[in-house]
Write a structure and sequence with these properties.
60 residues, mainly alpha, 2 helices, 70% helix, rod-shaped
Length: 60
């Protein structure tokens, strides 16, 4: 979302595009992407670790 807001501000509102602002917004976007990517990997590992093993049928 920060990247979309920045692009909208530059395109529609006439915000001046500066290199420093562009670098900061890019770093924020990369950090958010890495955070969500690592979080989903951790959730997937936790889900597989918490699953109970499948029960095998037993003879009576």
């Amino acid at each position: 979302m920060p990247l979309v807001g920045y692009v909208v501000a530059v395109m529609t509102l006439g915000e001046q595009m500066e290199l420093s602002k562009t670098i900061i917004v890019t770093l924020i976007v990369i950090a958010l992407y890495m955070f969500t990517r690592l979080e989903t990997k951790a959730d997937a590992k936790a889900d597989t670790a918490n699953k109970a093993p499948a029960l095998a049928p037993q003879k009576a």
